[in-house]
Design goal:
Dehydroquinate synthase-like, alpha domain, globular, binds glycine, 2 domains, 13 helices, 17% strand, alpha/beta
């Protein structure tokens, strides 16, 4: 089964291919988009050891001249130092305007290689071949690229849309189950934003999907990509509706910051807790039925995601301080994505900080 979702952005529009065994067909899918100067594959050591041979063979078969740059894995690579080395490597070997960067990895590689492609020679084409669930449903599409600064995550970046996304669900088999679950939180997010029927389907099928059922995975990734593509098409540069994609992220980023963006809490786990808090806040403000917040909490817990902050990041004052520094703060007000129910999310910029602090205090006391 090979599904195609279009991101309809006019001349910058592109297809997302989702299927099983696609890595072996990646060369055939990519070749029509390339010029004579070929491609540079940017990947990390973990992905390279598992899957690079197959991608390289597929590019060779399609006659795509390419070389590979392998970076250290992990969030530490998403900084100015690695970006500098990557750009040096890219430019050192005679990059041309038509040379494409193929980002082959998870969110770190996609964001970093995409940003390098955005700024090298003022922009060269890039293609995403995401290898994690989180990247296949979120970070590989939509064109946000960037790196971290010592002042915060993703503070240096550019919008640069890929020319193609190739998502092979078979690559998810080698992902640790914790990583798969963390990516699943972003899948649930789309149901909660504006696809209530999808959320109902996930309540029934989520466990099987997480156990590795390809058909269900492909359907979930396709629906997630359709949901994100529609929002990105309406608001590519996050002037309005795209902020809906930050559901769970205001609380979530504060929790991640408090744990030092380490292994205590993966991004998707922080988003899961953040979505529960966003629904709790919506209930507290009289906007959302308590039964809907219960469903969100129950489903996330049922698939093994955390729904309350770990003991070491329960200090409400510290979390409020992180939120006040979030890059989504506008005119001194914290932006929240709240909900009037499942599938009825909206962006709220005038929320009383005391109500958010009360949710954090409740979580700390639980
Ligand atoms: N991950 C949120 C966005 O792409 O806007």
């Amino acid at each position: 089964m090979n599904e195609i979702v279009r991101v309809p952005l006019g001349a910058r529009g592109y297809d997302i291919h989702i299927g099983s065994g696609l890595i072996d067909r990646a060369g055939t899918l990519i070749a029509p988009l390339l010029g004579a100067s070929g491609a540079v594959v940017v990947t990390d050591e973990s992905v390279a050891s598992l899957h690079l041979d197959r991608l390289s063979a597929s590019l060779d078969q399609a006659g795509i001249a390419h070389r590979t740059i392998v970076l250290p894995p992990g969030e530490a690579s998403k900084g100015l130092e690695t970006l500098g080395r990557l750009l040096d490597d890219l430019l050192g070997a005679g990059l041309e305007r038509s040379t494409a960067v193929i980002a082959f990895g998870g969110g770190v590689i996609g964001d970093l290689a995409g940003f390098a492609a955005a700024v090298a020679l003022r922009g060269i084409p890039f293609i995403q071949v995401p290898t994690t669930l989180l990247a296949q449903v979120d970070s590989a599409l939509g064109g946000k690229t960037g790196i971290n600064s010592r002042h915060g995550k993703n503070l240096i970046g550019a919008f640069h849309q890929p020319r193609l996304v190739v998502s092979d669900v078979d690559l998810l088999d080698s992902l640790p189950v914790r990583q798969r679950r963390a990516g699943y939180a972003e899948v649930v997010k789309y149901g909660l934003i504006d696809r209530p029927d999808f959320f109902t389907w996930l309540e029934q099928e989520g466990a099987a999907l997480l156990a590795g059922d390809s058909e269900r995975l492909i359907r979930a990734i396709r629906t997630s990509c359709e949901a994100k593509a529609a929002i990105v098409a309406a608001d590519e540069r996050e002037a309005g509706a795209r902020a809906l994609l930050n559901l769970g992220h205001t609380f979530g980023h504060a929790l991640e910051a408090e744990t030092g963006f380490g292994d205590t809490l993966l991004h998707g786990e922080a988003v899961a807790i953040g979505m529960v808090m966003a629904f709790d806040l919506s209930v507290r403000l009289g906007l959302c039925p308590a039964a809907d917040a219960d469903r969100v909490r129950r489903h996330l817990a049922a698939v093994g995601l955390p729904v309350a902050p770990p003991r070491e990041c329960r200090r409400p004052d510290a979390l409020m301080a992180h939120m006040a520094r979030d890059k989504k703060v506008a005119d001194g007000r914290i932006t929240f994505v709240l909900a009037r129910g499942i599938g009825k999310a909206f962006v709220a910029r005038d929320i009383d900080a005391a109500a958010a602090a009360a949710i954090l205090a409740e979580a700390a006391a639980a």
